[in-house]
Structure prediction request, 180 residues.
Amino acid sequence: MHCPYCRHTDSKVLDSRTAEDGCSIRRRRQCPSCSRRFTTIEQMQLVIVKRSGVVEPFNRDKVVSGVRKACKGRPVDEVQLARLGQVVEDTLRACGQSEIPADEVGVAILGPLRELDQVAYLRFASVYKQYHSLEDFESEIAMLRIESEPLGIEPLIPDQFDNKVSNFTPHKLTPGRTET
Prediction:
């Protein structure tokens, strides 16, 4: 580690501590040449291994840029996109590997994007999952609808006025329910 003051090529580590929930290490150093102290922060570098075998450093801005294209015309702001980029990076770092296959980045994007905006999710998924027909879209939309419907096991919430359950409709998959 070069000293930022005198550019000496060596330094002595005085103290090491984990920072940012264990994702990085903060080191307090001293230069043996000029005796000045400085702090360094070391972080595991994530690299993405593409399908072609090319390796490149993880770039959160690239994730946000791809998601921004899927969110074009949708009610999603830059703060939400930045938060999604951070969630994706945190998810990838949490796996504990320094080399991440490119398809795992896409998987890490899909979940948070689905929660953020379902239309943007469909747009992104259509490219990531390589949809080839309308049936691919229809099956994904059907899955989104099933996930957003009540399961029929939600607690019954009594009406505040007469302590009776009002307007409760169980999910269509609830046993014993008759279709109308």
Q: What stands out?
A: DSSP finds five helices and six strands in the chain.
